[in-house]
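check these tokens.
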Amino acid sequence: MPEQLDHAFADANHPISEDIANELEAQIFSGKLKPGDRLVERQLAQDFNVSRQPVRDALKLLMRHGLISQLPTRGVAVASLRPKELNDLFVVRESLEALAARLACQNVANGADPTRLKRLLDENKRAILARDNETAFRTNAEFHEEVLALADNKMLTDILNPILMRMHRLSGDKLDLSTVHAEHVDLYEAITSGDLKIADMSARNHTSSYKDRTRKKLSESDEDATAS
């Protein structure tokens, strides 16, 4: 179960349910909450020192993002992925990321500013060199968010963001940060090249490499679980 929080949710401009969802999301991504772990509404309300309604709203938000799933009996649990579901996610992600890269490339060619994309790359590189994994993971995620911002298509963002969140959970803390950084540099250069085909190919190559690394990681995790 989630650790009891030491802080109170007191920001009137930020719904309590979003704070709870963000905290649970962080615990899922960090591995504190693992696939199959049950999330009990009453217990969560006690842990967060809130009523059950904001917890209920937070769980609905996480379910929309694909991070938790409804159990056959009452309740919800952290979502797990079967091989077919994992493959389906990658097929969809590759097409959508390629579309995002093409749109971003087109918009940059038409005057959209890619400065923040480059700034995130630089910050990510500094974090990797300093072994600041928290910042490195954050800037990796924000890089993809900025590509979507440059693509400037709300429908695409609404569809792709939940997929990226599920992928982020799969990568956990075992992401090869240097390899991902190099691929993001390639993607940045492709997006700013003005060539839509190069942008498309770079995004697809990045997704394909990520797919191979994720499958290897999951296979190694299964072997470790069997050995133990």
Summary: The longest strand covers residues 68-70. Residues 146 and 169 are 19 Å apart (CA to CA).
